[in-house]
Amino acid sequence: MNIITSRSFLWFNCHSIEYLLRFLLAINDWLHACVTVERFLVIFLGVRFNKAISKQYATRTVWIILLSTAASIVHDPMHRRLIDDTEEGRTWCILRLTPQLEIYDRFINIFHFLIPFSLNFILAIGIIFLTARQRSAVQHEVTFKQQLRKQLSQHKHLILSSILLVILAVPRLVISFLPNCMKSAKEYKLFLAGYFVSFIPPILHFFIFVLTSEIYKKEFEIMMKQKWRAFQRRLNPNYELSSRN
């Protein structure tokens, strides 16, 4: 809107902001799926689940996701240009893609959207079925159907959260397929509403993953208590002695 006139600042924003937003949101979705995968493996492997090996694979997986996601959308900043519109008195940040790149760009958008959310939904159902089967095998007086109903009641938040995350992320996917530019100030409300709705899932991750899980919630409470004690010890070296008394 020609409020900022610094050419270098506009160039940096044009080539970085949208790329970083796409990158971070995609990373967020993939890490979300990784948490669900680990939850599924904990139940599927049971006592065979090795926490130390899981940490090693988690570190490698994070790096693979970071590098592959960054590489998959690197075409975005490479094909962005600044165009001065003298008629409207503004500078546009235009993404110009060849027909082949446009098909690839749409495919990547769908891929980073569909695969993580599909993993979340499918594995959430798998967690419920596996838990019900394991419980019914141990508690013979309770049938599999009864256990399945019980597990659906206890873990319904996993399925509901997966569906909710998909619904909230759909506007971002739809907007990514819209080629038109926002030329009128009257058009911005719909675009902004749909755009910022897609940022709700990252904000809700603490509530979805931590507060809905007894194990994660317990670990979070223990960690917070440890941090609080460490903070108190820094302020007062005699904190441990006074607290015991």
Biggest pleated sheet = 2 strands, antiparallel
Shape: globular
Q: Structurally, how many domains make up the residues?
A: 2
Can you tell me the CATH topology of the largest domain?
Rhopdopsin 7-helix transmembrane proteins
CATH superfamily of the largest domain: Rhodopsin 7-helix transmembrane proteins
Distance between the termini: 64 Å
| Broad structural category | mainly alpha
Q: Which value, in Å, is the CA radius of gyration? A: 24 Å
Under CATH at level 1, the class of the largest domain stands as: Mainly Alpha
| H/E series | HHHEEHHHHHHH
Helix share of residues?
over 70%
So how many helices? Answer: 10
- By DSSP, the count of extended strands is 2
The CATH architecture assignment of the largest domain turns out to be: Up-down Bundle
Percent of sequence in beta strands:
under 5%
Give me the side-by-side strand order of the main sheet: 1-2
Domain G-protein coupled receptors family 1 profile: 1-209
Pfam families: 7tm_1
InterPro entries: GPCR_Rhodpsn, GPCR_Rhodpsn_7TM
Protein name: G-protein coupled receptors family 1 profile domain-containing protein
